Amino acid sequence: MATPIIQLGLGPIGQGIVRHILARRDYDVVGAVDPAPDKAGRSLAEVVGLEAGAPGADAARSVTVRASLDEALAAASVAPVLAIHTTSSFLSQVTPQLVEAADRGLNVVSTCEELSYPFHHHPDQARAIDEAARRAGVSVLGTGVNPGFVMDLLPVCLTGVAASVLSVHVDRVVDAGTRRGPLKKKVGAGISLEEFHRRAASGTFGHIGLVESVAMVGAALGWTLTRITSDLRPKVAEEPYESPDVRVAPGDVLGIDQVAAGVDPTGAERIRFHLQMYVGAPDPHDTVRLEGNPPLELTIPRGTPGDVATMAAVINAIPQVIEAAPGLRTVVDLPVPRWRRP
Amino acid sequence: MATPIIQLGLGPIGQGIVRHILARRDYDVVGAVDPAPDKAGRSLAEVVGLEAGAPGADAARSVTVRASLDEALAAASVAPVLAIHTTSSFLSQVTPQLVEAADRGLNVVSTCEELSYPFHHHPDQARAIDEAARRAGVSVLGTGVNPGFVMDLLPVCLTGVAASVLSVHVDRVVDAGTRRGPLKKKVGAGISLEEFHRRAASGTFGHIGLVESVAMVGAALGWTLTRITSDLRPKVAEEPYESPDVRVAPGDVLGIDQVAAGVDPTGAERIRFHLQMYVGAPDPHDTVRLEGNPPLELTIPRGTPGDVATMAAVINAIPQVIEAAPGLRTVVDLPVPRWRRP
């Protein structure tokens, strides 16, 4: 029998996840929530752009997007067992949503980057979510590609064949020029240096989740990290860059160059995660390097793709989250999420 | 408090594991079993070649290697909670040993390749071990580098960011010339073609565990594999090969070239694992390729090293096996084994 799911948040990633799930036989989307005026009240098929005849279009036409979780639950033909949550990167915004979902008896898989490992940077919110989940006997997980895979699960997995590890380095280079418009905008492609520094000072610019991955890996490997640092710099154009949807003049910003690191009580830097995400980045790749015995290196040439892999990471984690012990979980606590034939 | 461990089998890998564990603070080796006349009755420190003053040498001098598990348990200062088992690649030999260990209340991590996923090829032995483990409330796991990592855990982990998978390919190339003597011998470096075919016909020659990895990945991804094939060929020298400990004349054997594959009911080959292990192999590497959406590739340049990584895989799985639900487990059932600061 198909597992009934509810979708919370219908931005581009939420819409993509719904389309993927509707094309599978093992999940049913029995409800969807998005309060945006152009979404609430319309059919899910319309909102996610499913033509009549597309896989799952009939099912999606029978679901109306609702402005609140309780309205969606009241309208659902079957009670969902899990919510897919794709509303925001920030715990301050999503904590009430996650607590509400847990209170309604829903397991949750979320793309919220700060949720991937909130115990270090947001202990109060982590505790509130964990307590709500335990009270309800459900599990909550934040995952995706990064955080969720490239800079946490993958390096932790690689340490499994190491007799000792001195440090963990991950380099991820993404050519934002090959990605959808919002990502180019997110990394600041085309803005001035002045604007970059203004946004950086806001604290919500740049890629979210690096420091969470540092904290997750530190905890998984038993390192006490007394300092977790984060450094965000602009990648500046030396030559003009031009593509159909973005132009960057020399001296302006191509994207971000971001480093998060973890230092132990002896002052040794144990973890260093480096993310470069800018238009025109040459040689995109993900590389994990472990110093230790033996030294180990692992590369994903061209890098783990962004959006489709993020959607996949969320969908593939569903069975593990439903099976997990109640509480707020992290991706390294669970049997590895894997694709499974629908 | 350190976790008390007992070592079953003191061949090269078992000895290496003991040396690694003795150098850590989180495990104590409280017993060791090997019936070989040159081992039983001697001190563990002597058998594993620990000089006085080496880490753990004092502890190892206080342990006498015994010929049987019951003798070792009777002599142990503390009851061990887990046995590390490194005696044989073949379930027919190890099943009674594993059942005995489970009956004595011991969790087990084993390097037995056929144990990594015995449910397909050895269902009766799998059931006997699983029942003994459940009866005793302990867990049993077979793991290592291959099987245990390169051709099962790693590709399954990579599918976690795939929205669909059509096939899984892994290529592993090992230069046996850089490995210890027994491995060169195991792959047949220097023997004639005639001798190769004679050994191949015995059914116990070649690398053990490839078909187990195929079955494990098939089950993890939900594919019904109606046929699992295995093909073992010699890698033949075209030019003379010479190293300090092996000479191969043209026309003789450098090592093995082995393929295991899994085919589904439609006749589609879903899984293809290719292992080349021979002296002088150029460009050693492990590469995982997934056909699907998105296509994904992952490479470990120079390849996952053999012995030290195997020992590490076993040691790193100990906490997961102790925590696991009782029964016969596989490496993809558990939270990923990881190195942890001792």
Automatic annotation (TrEMBL), chains A, B:
SUPFAM superfamilies reported for this sequence: NAD(P)-binding Rossmann-fold domains (SSF51735)
Domain 2,4-diaminopentanoate dehydrogenase C-terminal: 149-338
Superkingdom field: Bacteria
InterPro entries xrefs: DAP_DH_C, NAD(P)-bd_dom_sf
Family matches, as Pfam families: DAP_DH_C (PF19328)
UniProt name for this protein: Dihydrodipicolinate reductase
Origin species: Limnochorda pilosa
